[in-house]
Amino acid sequence: MKNRKPILFGLVALSCAGIVLGQEEKKSSYLPVVPKEEFSATMSRMKTEKPTVMKRQKDLLQERYDLRNDPVPGGTMTRGKPVQRGIRVKLAPGTSWEKLAAMTPEEIRGGDLFPQGFLPLPHPNHPEGGMVFPQFEINEIKKQEGRDLTRFDLDFDLPDHFLPEFPAPIFLTTRPDLGDVSQGKLVTIDNFFELFDGILNPKQIEGLRLLLTPFPQQQFNQTSDRRSERPSRGVACFDCHANGHANGATHLVGDIRPQEHRHRLDTPSLRGVNIQRLFGSQRALKSVEDFTEFEQRAAYFDGDPVIATKKGANILERGSQVQFMAEFQELLDFPPAPKLDIFGKLNPEKASAAERRGQDLFFGKAQCVICHPPPYYTDNSMHNLQAERFFKTKTINGLVASADGPIKTFPLRGIKDSPPYLHDGRLLTLEDTVEYFNLISGTKLSADEKDDLVAFLRVL
User: Fold this and answer.
1) Which is higher by pLDDT, 297 or 411?
2) Per the domain annotation, does 189 fall within a domain?
3) What tens digit of pLDDT does each residue of 447-458 get?
4) Residues 6 or more apart whose Cβ sits within 8 Å of residue 26
5) pTM for the full model?
6) Same domain, 83 and 187
């Protein structure tokens, strides 16, 4: 009897690993608690596979998009990074946007004419998944903290010129008079106090400290099934939500299975969370406090509490730590929009003719206002675009491209600062976005009307 406990423990471990004695292993949502190969072997294998994995993703992007660096003349984000212009999604030979807009969804589906760049975008390595950071974020964190967010198995895929400016400016609802309080720096655990002492109260400073503190995460931790070469202290909230905004970092949503049906996640901005009411990839979280607590309990570990326990989950204390972190996030404001009035509409004396025409389209023919009412241009709701009407289910680099289901209406305030677009970042420019919604919603905008609508979106 004295050996019974070790035997039971062994059975639990084997079961968690997807193995039951006397049976073959079956496909499961759970990761093995005990890895099936040594860390050195895993790293060596994945390093060898990496060039093939990245070439596959690079080829897909080249096939889908025009990836050249071609900015809008004089058009910039808030701190001066050029905004990319033009439709980057490629069309099938012999097709035009006008021809597509004149066709029914059934005709487009039957002819397999739905633009490839409008299909769901897979993770850089979809079968593997996990957090991946753009190189500029990796370099700056390594410079400031000596912490390395490099993965040995894959790299970030989208070119830098399609990503938000870095570091992004920070605007506070409590101190609009200060403008950008980041001083042009990426806020980290090393410099946050000197930047915010005297601007935030002690509770808010503590919340910011926690948002900048690295904690174990699925790919970045100290166990042998990590994806960093050396044991890692982990990932901070603001590694993805850099300066409370976004940097293009990507992941897979944790709440869909099996793996091939999980959606790629384009990290959303935290600007304006004080006016938002739905959080999480399925929008099941109704407050930023819920979101903050959920992230480190579940999302950091692909929704697997057993693996979270093994790797070192950071369980935040709801009454203080979560509240402090949420309070700072609630202070993050949208960037200034000097052409808008207090109702979120254009001041006619400041707006160009194209911008005014674009606003008329936004509130009229284009029907954007149905989901994006001012002043913040969100209805805090979910909408199912039913894009699957236009294409047949197919597998793309390990992702089963099928129905997206309901997606959240993100605020459009400051939208030019937040590329790429849609929940998985499949749309690289605002022009791509307008084309996508023109086709999906059947509004049949002319080329000039699309240009005017983009002009309006850039001033929000």
Assistant:
1) 411
2) yes
3) 999 999 999 999
4) 18
5) 0.93
6) no
Domain annotation covers residue 51 = no
Quick one: how many helices (H) and strands (E) in the chain?
14, 8
Residues sharing a CB contact under 8 Å with residue 94, sequence separation 6 or more, in sequence order: none
What end-to-end distance do the CA atoms of the chain give, in Å? 71
The string of pLDDT tens digits covering residues 339-397 is 999 999 999 999 999 999 999 999 999 999 999 999 999 999 999 999 999 999 999 99
Identity of residue 378: T
CB 120 within 8 A of CB 263: yes
Q: At 22, is the pLDDT very low, low, confident or very high (cuts 50, 70, 90)?
A: very low
Distances (CA, A) of 74 to 84, 197, 415, 432: 11, 36, 17, 20
Note whether residue 366 is domain-resident: yes
Cis peptide before 32 (omega within 30 of 0): no
Same domain, 205 and 264: yes
Same domain for 396 and 363? yes
With beta carbons less than 8 A apart as the criterion, state whether 216 and 313 touch: yes
Residues 142 and 261 reside in one and the same domain: yes
Angle at 400 between CA 396 and CA 403, to 5 degrees: 120
Q: Which two tokens stand for residue 266?
A: 């384009």
Three-state SS for 305? helix
Asked if residue 330 and residue 195 are part of one domain, the reply reads: yes
State which residues form the domain around 137: 129-336
pLDDT of residue 8: 33
Residue 99 has pLDDT above 60, yes or no: yes
What is the pLDDT, as a whole number, of residue 23? 53
Q: What is the 3-state secondary structure (H, E, C) of 76-143?
A: ECCCCCEEECCCCECCCCCCCHHHHHHCCHHHHHHCCCCCHHHCCCCCCCCCCCCCECCHHHHHHHHH
Question: Which ranges in 224-379 belong to alpha helices (H)?
Answer: 237-240, 288-297, 305-311, 323-329, 353-363
Q: Report the mean per-residue pLDDT for the chain.
A: 93
32 lies in a domain? no
| 240 and 368 assigned to the same domain | no
Domain shared by 182 and 243, yes or no: yes
CB 452 within 8 A of CB 361: yes
Last residue of a domain, one of 302, 320, 336: 336
Quick one: average pLDDT of 424-434? 98
Q: What total of structural domains would you count in the chain?
A: 2
The mean pLDDT value for 48-64 works out to 98
CATH number, domain of 359, equals 1.10.760.10
Would you state the pLDDT for residue 317? 93
Considering 315, 336, 357, which residue would you say is the last residue of a domain?
336
Alpha-carbon distance of 44 to 79, in angstroms, equals 41
Residues 181, 265: one domain?
A: yes
